[in-house]
């Protein structure tokens, strides 16, 4: 839990995942179909990912990946590393960490399927700042728009900076949580009542992994303290299944250049009133990419070098933490018997009671956890002390 003796600094002014006002970019026809290049190179990794896509209409937002590009990452001391396509607009480049030392400039060169060349400016690899302690506490938060008070878990971190450290940082979170169906598969009707014994738990346990789309940044250049505590990260309310069984978050602390920090600051300002970004594409904010030989043609996105320090945290449901979310399980009582079930809905799952079936027809979400967005494949990093039947 969060320590009690915390130095209070005006962190919420410096670091905020919220927004200033709703923003609805008016993209004309010329803004649709622009290339978007996004990627990060870190001295802590050897495989690096670049995503290439095109913008879509804001009114019909979608992710439009671009395959068949040629991707090369170059360093300021003359090294070049070719990438390979992983499909769906994703490209991976292997670089031994010995080539990615502090102070080395990094840039990307992309050749599009049409033969046009896009490159980024050099972004200098900063010194990595170790991630501080991650703490959490149960809190009540008030929605500034609706006035509603909600209970949830608030995460915090600390930051220790030296005089020669970059003052520009960003935190990125990747969430994973386990959730369960309400019932295993035990009885179903497909023209006759079928009994599954032992009960089928293959669709009972699910896991969802997602990038948190809030932006958390800080600029420490005007702070005198070397240690900064009580830095607010994300908040999980009790209106989701995240804390129903077990929740995990991978927190990546990124040390950035000023240009990269400024790009993420602009995206944060132009986010929506709930603090969520447009999920499929960045807003029309120009980064550090351009067409070779044609500076007037616009490319969106940013290619950055970052020192990354990471930590994974697991959170069990806090004691007496009441959840208030819709699990989408709503059984229907069959007043007229099985003739109420259209064969199109076979198999129709039946609620079990005292070892037998009842005339309560369960919708598929009651027993098929994957219909709620997750996968039945247990992540490799998940604790093994949570056995399946």
Strand content: 35-45%
- Main sheet attributes: strand count, strand direction, barrel closure: 16 strands, mixed
Q: Per the principal axes of the C-alpha atoms, what is the gross shape?
A: globular
Q: What's the helix count?
A: 2
Determine Rg (CA atoms, Å): 25 Å
Helix content: under 10%
How many domains make up the coordinates? Answer: 2
Low-confidence runs of at least 5 consecutive residues? 1-27, 272-281
Mean pLDDT score: 87
What's the topology here?
Blueprint: H1 11-14, E1 35-42, E2 47-54, E3 64-65, E4 70-75, E5 80-87, E6 90-94, E7 105-111, E8 117-120, E9 123-124, E10 134-142, E11 149-160, E12 168-180, E13 185-189, E14 193-200, E15 205-211, E16 216-219, E17 227-237, E18 246-255, H2 258-269, E19 286-291, E20 294-300, E21 303-315, E22 332-333, E23 348-353, E24 356-362
Please describe what this structure looks like.
- The protein is mostly beta strands.
- The chain has two domains: 11-176 and 209-315, no CATH class; 183-204 and 329-372, no CATH class.
- It has two helices and 24 strands.
- It has a 16-stranded mixed β-sheet that branches.
- Strand 1 and strand 2 form a beta hairpin.
- The longest helix is centred in the C-terminal third of the chain and has 12 residues, at 258-269.
- It is globular.
- It starts with 10 loop residues before the first helix and ends in a 27-residue tail after the last strand.
- The model is unreliable at 1-27 and 272-281 (pLDDT under 50).
Keywords:
389 residues, mainly beta, 2 domains, 16-stranded mixed sheet, 2 helices, disordered N terminus
């Amino acid at each position: 839990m969060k320590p009690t003796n915390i130095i209070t600094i005006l962190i919420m002014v410096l670091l905020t995942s919220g927004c200033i006002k709703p923003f609805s970019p008016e993209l004309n026809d010329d803004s649709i179909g622009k290339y978007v290049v996004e990627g990060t190179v870190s001295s802590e990794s050897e495989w690096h990912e670049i995503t290439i896509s095109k913008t879509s209409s804001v009114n019909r937002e979608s992710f439009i990946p671009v395959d068949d590009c040629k991707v090369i990452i170059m360093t300021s001391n003359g090294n070049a590393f070719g990438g390979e396509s992983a499909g769906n607009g994703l490209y991976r480049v292997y670089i031994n960490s010995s080539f990615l030392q502090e102070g080395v400039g990094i840039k990307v060169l992309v050749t599009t399927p049409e033969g046009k060349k896009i490159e980024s400016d050099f972004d200098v690899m900063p010194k990595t700042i170790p991630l501080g302690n991650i703490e959490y506490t149960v809190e009540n938060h008030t929605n500034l728009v609706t006035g509603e008070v909600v209970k949830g878990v608030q995460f915090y971190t600390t930051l220790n900076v030296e005089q020669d450290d970059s003052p520009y940082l960003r935190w990125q979170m990747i969430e994973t949580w386990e959730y369960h169906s309400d019932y295993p598969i035990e009885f179903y009707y497909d023209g006759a009542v079928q009994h599954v014994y032992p009960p089928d738990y293959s669709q009972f346990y699910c896991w969802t992994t997602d990038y948190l789309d809030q932006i958390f940044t800080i600029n420490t250049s005007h702070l005198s303290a070397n240690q900064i505590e009580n830095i607010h990260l994300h908040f999980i309310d009790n209106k989701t299944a995240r804390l129903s069984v077990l929740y995990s978050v991978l927190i990546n602390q990124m040390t950035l250049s000023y240009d990269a920090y400024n790009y993420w600051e602009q995206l944060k300002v132009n986010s929506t009133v709930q603090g969520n970004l447009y999920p499929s594409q960045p807003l029309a904010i120009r980064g550090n990419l351009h067409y070779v030989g044609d500076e007037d043609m616009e490319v969106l996105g940013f290619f950055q070098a970052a020192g990354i320090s990471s930590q994974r945290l697991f959170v069990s449901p806090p004691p007496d933490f009441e959840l208030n979310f819709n699990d989408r399980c709503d059984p229907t009582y069959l007043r007229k018997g099985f003739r109420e079930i259209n064969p199109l809905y076979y198999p129709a799952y039946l609620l079990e009671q005292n070892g037998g079936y009842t005339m309560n027809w369960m919708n598929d979400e009651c027993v098929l956890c994957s219909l709620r967005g997750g996968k039945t494949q247990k992540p490799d990093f998940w604790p093994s002390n949570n056995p399946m039947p």
